[in-house]
Amino acid sequence: MAKRILVVEDNDLNRKLFCDVLKAGGFAVEPLADGRDVLVRAREFVPNLIIMDIQLPNISGLELIEALKGDPGLRLIPVLAVTAYAGKGDEERIREAGAEGYLAKPVSIGPFMMAVKALV
Q1: Which among 62, 67, 71, 65 has a CA at the least distance from the CA of 49?
Q2: pLDDT digits (tens, 9 = 90+) for 3-56
Q3: Which of 28, 26, 29, 27 lies closest to 8, judged by CA?
Q4: Could you tell me the pTM of the whole model?
Q5: How many angstroms separate the CA atoms of 25 and 69, rounded?
Q6: Is 49:120 a contact under the CB 8 Å cutoff?
Q7: Neighbours of 96 (CB within 10 A)
Q8: Taking Cα atoms as reference points, which of 37, 2, 15, 4 lies closest to residue 82?
């Protein structure tokens, strides 16, 4: 059975790119543009990995990672943060929130797939 990945990304082009690449890699993918739906969709879809944009409208990806890690039913799902935040201390702050992986945008396909495979 294909590993399941929830892709949380508000940018339509990035979301489509991530989903297309993951589907081509044999993964079952659930795209999500609105971070406010993450906890509900994660419970329904039961992903093996969540790819999380950090800069989302309405709610921060950091808040969502903390909420996921604080939920007994979701805390074991690894999170790969993919973000344009690539300044000093950003990766550390994102990992402290609970993300197991971190990639700075723009993302190259090779490193992206390596990070995904390392976490599923």
Answers
A1: 65
A2: 999 999 999 999 999 999 999 999 999 999 999 999 999 999 999 999 999 999
A3: 29
A4: 0.96
A5: 27
A6: yes
A7: 12
A8: 15
